[in-house]
Amino acid sequence: MTAEMLDAVPDLLAQRIAALREYKGSLLLTHGPAEAPEGVLLALRRPTGALFRVVAFQVQPGPRRQAVAASLAEQLLAAARREEVFLLRAAAADAALLDADLLPLLGLPPLALPYTETWLGNVSASPRQHVPLYRQTTRFTCGPASLLMSFGVLGQPCSERREEIALWREASSIAGLTGPGGCDPFGLALAAQARGYAPRVLTSTSRAMLLERVDTDEKRELIEFVQTDFRLRTEEARIPIEQRDFTVAELAAPVAAGGVALLLIDQFLTHGRHTPHWIVLHHHQDDWFLVNDPWTEPGRMEGPADAEHLPIRTATLEDMAWFGEPAYRAAVILPIQPG
After folding, report:
1. Does residue 18 contact residue 6 with C-beta atoms inside 8 Å?
2. Which CATH homologous superfamily contains domain 3-119?
3. In the prediction, which pLDDT does 2 show?
4. 267: which residues sit within 8 A by CB, 6+ positions away?
5. Which candidate among 53, 97, 108, 272 keeps its CA 20 to 30 Å from the CA of 90?
6. Splitting the chain (339 residues) into consecutive groups of 10 residues, what average pLDDT does each group show?
């Protein structure tokens, strides 16, 4: 979009377009001349997700309004088919940028908190358990936040920061590249077991993990020491550990049975940076999972509509679920019933 067009649209819409247009996955559709666009539709998609969030949909009043809106709606639906996106959402937080009377052209029901949605084509989610999104409050507590969401699925809802930080203190590898460190699967499994659950750990490596996130030998030695102790304690606690090159597809069975899986991924494909990160897989259907991601990107103005019940194809998760050099993967499975 040109500066001329930004000057021609309302200030709030211009600000949102300027903030999001450079992000991979943003889609800006316009109708009419640059100096006086008749309509604008802005959608945002995480590159790894099969979901478009409609951020803005506005059309100037007049006799051509419905035709212009219908054209923009069809362009978005065509883009969804082309990019194999099968879920649309509109967030109540974006209400000021959405002409409510135009949402039905996309098949979207009236806005509701936190968002409204519609499934496209022949895809529809079978009845699913509600997994409330808990957004991590620090850059290093994705693992504890994922555990909190898992506990919510399995009958022990909790959304307090005190518990998030308490879990981190129990499961942390201590050190990171620029500050406190994240959590390995063994620390998370021990924390889950301490709260009455029966976790199972899958890992492809016997080496300490997350060493890529430290920049001194002292930090590296500390992480190796802590994780060695976590693994020993996991074995002593008789928590099952399977060390092999497992596939993400294997997680479908325990998830379909009503359990959840915490999966370690690299954020590069989603947010363009190599960072280890834990997410929650809580529903499986056909060739995709529904995922809760505790991280929402501030610059993309992400919220629950972007990170809660997010459909991601199994093949995409297979690519995401490798981290490090040499690459390794890890998961923590929690069955539906506490142990």
Report:
1. yes
2. Gcn5-related N-acetyltransferase (GNAT) (3.40.630.30)
3. 63
4. 273, 274, 275, 276, 277, 295
5. 272
6. 69 85 87 87 96 96 96 98 97 96 97 95 78 91 95 68 92 69 94 95 94 82 91 97 98 94 96 94 95 92 94 98 95 78
Question: CA nearest 144: which of 329, 265, 294?
Answer: 294
For tokens 């020491």, the residue is: 225
Q: Which CATH architecture has domain 142-334?
A: Alpha-Beta Complex (3.90)
The candidate with the shortest Cα–Cα distance to 25, out of 46, 4, 10, 7, is: 46
Q: How many residues does the chain have?
A: 339
| Helix/strand/coil percent split, the chain, to 5 | 40, 20, 40
- Whole-angstrom CA distances from 279 to 94, 100, 137 are 25, 33, 15
pLDDT at 12: 84
Q: What pLDDT was estimated at residue 104?
A: 98
Q: Alpha-carbon distance 23 to 40, whole Å?
A: 18
Tens of pLDDT, residues 227-285: 999 999 999 999 999 999 999 999 999 999 989 999 999 999 999 999 999 999 999 99
CB under 8 Å to 38, separation ≥6 — which residues? 31, 32, 59, 60, 62, 64, 65, 68
Delimiting residues of CATH 3.40.630.30 domain(s) in the chain:
3-119
CATH 3.90.70.10 in the chain is located at 142-334
Tell me what pLDDT residue 339 has. 45
Distance, in Å, from the CA atom of 137 to the CA atom of 296, rounded to the nearest integer, reads 10
Sequence-ordered list of residues with C-beta below 8 angstroms from that of 185, at least 6 positions apart, any chain: 201, 202, 203, 209, 262, 264, 330, 331, 332
